[in-house]
Fold:
Amino acid sequence: MDSEMTTLEIDGQSVSVPAGSTILEAAAAAGVEIPNLCYMKELGPYGACGVCVVEVKDCPKMLRACSAKVAPGMVVYTKSEKALATRRLALELLMGDHDGDCIGPCKLNCPAHTDCQKYVKEIAEGRYADAVATIMETFPLPAAIGRVCPHPCEKACRRRLVEAPISIAQLKYFAADQVRKDGNAHPIKVGAPSGKKVGIIGGGPAGLTAAFKLVQRGHDVTVFDQMPEMGGMLRYGIPEYRLPKAVLKAETDAIAALGVKYVNDFKIGRDEGFDSFRARFDAVIVANGAWKSSAMRVKGEDLEGVWGGIDFLRAVVTGQKPAIGGRVAIVGGGNTAMDACRTAVRVGAKEVFVVYRRTRKEMPAEDVEITEAEEEGVVFKFLYAPDEILGRDGKVCGMRLQVMELGEPDERGRRKPVPVPGKFEEIALDSVIAAIGQRNDPEGFEALPQTQKGTIAADEGNFSTTLPGVFACGDTVNKGAGIAIGAIAQANEAALAVDAYLNGAEYRPVKPVLSERDLGEKDFADRPRVARAKMPQRPPEERRNDFKEVNLGLSPETAQAEAKRCLECGCHDYHDCRLIRYANLVNADTQRLRGEFHEGFEERKLVTIERNQRKCILCNLCVRVCEQEAKQGLLGLVGRGFKTVIRPEFRDPSATDVCRTCRLCAENCPTGALKIIGG
Ligand code: SF4
Ligand code: SF4
Ligand code: SF4
Ligand code: FES
Structure:
């Protein structure tokens, strides 16, 4: 054997490397990755980060692989319990003083984790087709969901700390409408046929999203739905004035154009038993929604003229012209109640009341929906609960209302409504619409285990059921009805799980380790205020007479200006950042050692490189690369201990000319602290 070579063992593998090599180099030769942040081959070891630690047999202390040299017969463990624990500690120490957002709060707060920041930026740059492609990485209905989503992303949007959140949902449908109008959508790639058949029960947002995902993976997908057209609650529960059927149809047609087959007017139990259906497919997803209105449980509920909220909305959509009369009360405070009251106005009711047992502040409906309903003449009766529906000749003639007041907060922090003893009111009515919730219909799915609520019991992670090859997601499972994007989030997980199942594997989602900032208004005090875009609308006196869309849509100029308000919170380097990749490898707790952050600031609008000292881990790579590789020596560590920062600023004119062409520091920074800008 060559005397210049040293043979050692790394993670059970024998490897021979030139004598004098480091353990890190030997591991690389053996194909074993040892995390390292402050090391660069050209610069040699520096020893600042400590994440490259390994355990060596019979050696009492941990060694830094980037500087420790190999020895004959050495036995190295890169993933022993001790090595991983020490590496985790090193990463937790680095993360404890690392102040950055890996992912923007908008994306984190979207149940489906749609990349809001990315598509908002693409819209800001006028790249609408790219924006739609970004959205469609998550789900296939951007024009529909943009119109109806209560946008939890906006509730978390950082821009709210400046003046108002970015209008993310409206931007989403602006881009989708624009691309449809321009006919320039990016084509969606469909995978080579897998030979596997998937049957999806339910053509709503969950079923359609799962179909979209699975057809892209080459599976032969058929969606079955009980209604004459696809769309589920988006079609039959959301009124035309909020989501035109033609907009939805264009999106469901686009899914069909990818090869997804649709079978309508098909109901499990009525048209085929579940067992026989299941036998026809390699895998099945049950996503049949929640189509039953919840009962109010008051006397008189069975009178003629009492409607369930979604039954009423569906009757209108299917052209049944429900005879609700001139005076109508809607019971409930959610978005279905708003859809029902505004629809009642449009089908000709003269006086429409919303009866809600708390105050406006506690109403779960979107504030804008409440305002628009008021503008259209709906009268809100807050702090009232139905006590009895009054009837004459078997028909509704009024409602007795219990007067309520707010008591102690409940488990969600909302103050509980409590009856005021002996205080009642009566109103004369022709019909009552109960919009207090909806539930699934288990009929036909008895083979599947149920929760105590009567929903289908599915695994919360991968949405498998106890029946092999049967998955279930959306409003029909677990906690029951929620918002469409929540059902879509579940459908994405279910689709990944089905794909894995069809490939003989099991899918389990993993929650990534992230760095997150905790910011308040004072952190944005220096930002200029820019008003949020206002959506143009048809006037209330006009729109209350028909079902034409209320919102007129943003213009390209307004949309781009709105998108430019985005603060770009998520880190530009998330996909390349070694710090967060290694933190994930050891499942580091980024909060555990969080203390006082070292003095950090952002240097924005620099000529060539932006620097965010808050994300800097002081690994010194940039300083050394500038000195040793670029031969410039422009950078240095300034200050001592906790107050150390990298200097000088790149805006120094003597530095920028060199930096403009070199950029080596930013290319080699292991975190997102340095960002190359411009060309
Ligand atoms: S530098 Fe890395 S860890 Fe820090 S915010 Fe960016 S991606 Fe996350
Ligand atoms: S400002 Fe932009 S990146 Fe930040 S949360 Fe809002 S939309 Fe997302
Ligand atoms: S800015 Fe320089 S010192 Fe800070 S993390 Fe990046 S390379 Fe290391
Ligand atoms: S100490 Fe070895 S890579 Fe940082």
